[in-house]
Amino acid sequence: MATAGKVIKCKAAVAWEPNKPLVIEEIEVDPPQANEVRIKIVATGVCHSDLYQLFENMHKDGFPTVLGHEAAGIVESVGPGVTEFQPGDKVIPLFLAQCEQCRFCKSPKTNQCERAWDNNRSGAMAPLESRFTCKGKKIQQFVGTSTFSEYTVVNQMAVAKIDPASPLDKVFLLGCGICTGYGAAVNTAKVEPGSTCAVFGLGAVGLAAVMGCSAAGAKRIIAVDINPEKFEKAKVFGATDCVNPKDHDKPISKVLAEMTNGGVDFSLECVGNVEVMRSALESCVEGWGVSVIVGWTDLHDFAARPVQLIAGRTWKGSFFGGFKGKVGVPGMVKAYMDKKVKLDEFITHEMTLDQINDAIELMKTGKWWIYTLIFSSITRLSSISQGMPC
């Protein structure tokens, strides 16, 4: 492409400081260096994790930054040493890299990667190096992706090549939320046919978890949220029952235990709230119940009574749904193309990048569950809320 090897000036939404509106700026994006890929972002999503960094974590070393980590795009150019990708490839950037060489990447037991940990500083949630500059100041790349920009530069180990026939304005959803929820049910919980499940929080992650439970053959899927407007959408993805904790004068765990003769076989917490995490655990049946923490937070400790685990329950966590990105994401794209996974149903609204702060505000209110924005006639930005605390 004509821009290969040159600095690209483009539009991006910059978070100059925490707890402040994003600012649409013209930034400079350097050419990719060794083992890097520069990507033209075609569609990107706003996930709760972006809001977590902006409004909850607010780490002093994490700003200024360009947020965004759920996207799809087209390779514009590649740096020295890149052989896996070439200009024109359709790709999805990965906030969880896969070097394919470390002991974690080589293990079938996890989707973690040692080099991925090295590349993202704890707290700041960004690597030390960045290819972004604005007004003469270095701008950080959130979790190494920063997709709230028309162009971004990503290490090749954090890029998944996808089917060239796939619609980027749909499959971008697989960059985070859908894989996270769906995989938590299928890969981490390993939901079994004929089982009973409960999903706490009906944002996109929770809805995807409902879809995963359904795909795994669960016979009963109880959707839990304090916003009843989400219940009809949950049924589209496979929920058989919907429960609003506010409708009951007893703990939701006791409500579910009464509904299921002692508790569910599997529960998934898709909120990122430590109190809900405990409720999800306590909703599981003694003896074999499995509860999975899916919602992201690192601000508070969580707690449970030892007997709740001694009695036979299992409490575990899931990151990006247990998917190894370079393999799992293309596989999910194929599943969508084969009509085995829903994506279109997650998209309900459209806006421009200039309205990104409006989208963030809508997400904060919790009055909706899924949101889509458009950069231009071919570029979309989708924001996906997690369920509100139950």
TrEMBL record:
Organism whose genome encodes this protein: Anabas testudineus (Climbing perch)
SMART domains (UniProt xref): PKS_ER
GO cellular component, one term: cytosol
Name of the protein this chain belongs to: Enoyl reductase (ER) domain-containing protein
Top-level division of the source organism's lineage: Eukaryota
Gene3D superfamilies, alphabetized: Medium-chain alcohol dehydrogenases, catalytic domain, NAD(P)-binding Rossmann-like Domain
Family to which the UniProt record says this protein belongs: Belongs to the zinc-containing alcohol dehydrogenase family.
Named cofactor requirement(s): Zn(2+)
GO molecular function, one term: zinc ion binding
Example of a GO biological process term: formaldehyde catabolic process
Aminoacyl-tRNA synthetase recorded as keyword: no
Domain Enoyl reductase (ER): 17-368
Keyword set, alphabetical order: Metal-binding, NAD, Oxidoreductase, Zinc
